[in-house]
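Tokens for Shikimate dehydrogenase (NADP(+)). Go.
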Amino acid sequence: MSNITVLAGLIGAGIQASRTPALHEREGDAQGMRYLYRLIDLDALKLDSSALPDLLLAAERMDFTGLNITFPCKQAIIPLLDELSPEASGIGAVNTVVLKDGKRIGHNTDCLGFAEGFHRGLGDVARKRVVQMGAGGAGAAVAHALLVEGVGMLSIFDVEVSRAEALADNLNQHFGAGRARAGHDLAIAMAEADGLVNTTPMGMAKLPGMPVPVELLRSALWVAEIVYFPLETELLRNARALGCRTLDGGTMAVFQAVKAFELFSGVAPDAQRMLAHFQSMNH
């Protein structure tokens, strides 16, 4: 029995179906810790991201160990933090906040989580040109991971073109000119691409649909998804029907939690056990 106690929470909108609390608490049990993980759902509380300062202060006062941060707060949280890890600072998005000694320290475990899934599921794919849908907080982390993984040219599409342009600029400063661009013609970009990555919430149970028209998919394309509820989104179902290689959002969900668990508790969890637990929740 360890004497470690952890009180953690997830702040985001529409998170009732999140697997994250169960992942953390079950691993905490297995490690002999007292580990509580609470959902702080902005939708259920009828709040928006303007409530973040209050929620952070409340968490500190109640001696929370740390917080995970999800849509739509991964960028809005940054001005409220004292420090950022080099990764969070480079990405410009935070999904994990450690509350320690009166300080709020922001980390990003999405980047590592996506990279781990990519290695496991699509490690050997062609990656000269890749199309990414979405340039939000998760999109920023995934884009960094893709360029670290050797994607030659990343075309980023977002409903807000300025957001895609800002992310492409940030990536080009980090990785060298010409590695990323804001996409303008989706049909052409898709025709030239080796792979497609969805980082938008489109495809979630509460936001059904596809981030790209189905007629732009073809069998030679690989398709990766970060949505994991449901594990088989409409995008993945259509891609698999064409014979595409695919990667669902499950591995990223698990491995971002693996790293967050370690940041909160100071103990490295058993990643295989957490993966097995996640899979058991989805069958």
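The chain has ten helices and twelve strands.
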